[in-house]
Structure formats: structure tokens, C-alpha cells
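Slide 14.
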Amino acid sequence: MTPPQYRQVPAQVDLPALEHDVLDFWRDSKVFAKTLEQSEGRPEWVFYEGPPTANGMPGAHHIEARVFKDVFPRFRTMRGYHVARKAGWDCHGLPVELAVEKERSR
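Slide 15: predicted structure.
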């Protein structure tokens, strides 16, 4: 048995350029739209995420939450579920209004 042939990998890789190439491929090939089309009619899996907030300082826990919001829908899509991702935005009303009023009263 002959070993598989792989193309040579350069020692130095321009990761930002590589990421842009991948994103261009996904956009041009409409990969995300195709996953939604292919899973149409399959059992739905819904991920109710908490909205991001416009107040407070960002922290490491925001990164962790973003990872979960990305990984679980991808995993369920790969398991055959229809996962229509629709992110919302909510500024949590009163806490933001109070912060704005505090800032304006200075």
C-alpha cells in the first residue's frame, strides 16, 4: 500500500491571510446557506442564547459564552438537525438607561 500524497506545508504560514481565504471560499460557495437548505425539514434544534449587553466591561467569560454559542449550533447541525441561527440584540433596557443617565448628569 502506498502512503497518501499530501501537498507540502510551508514552514511559515500567514494565518490572517489563510483565514481570509477560507472566509472568501465560504462566502463565494454559500456554504452556510447550503447547510440550512440541506437540513430543511429535519428536526429543529433551537439554542436560546442570552443577548449581549451594551454595559459593563468585556471579560474572559464573554469569550467562553461566544464559544458555546458557536460550537453547539455547529455540532447539532453536523448531527443532522436544522439549526436556524438568528442572533438578537438587547441592551437590557433599564441598566443601560441608568448608565446613560448617570453619564449625562456629570
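Speaker note: The two ends are 77 Å apart (CA to CA).
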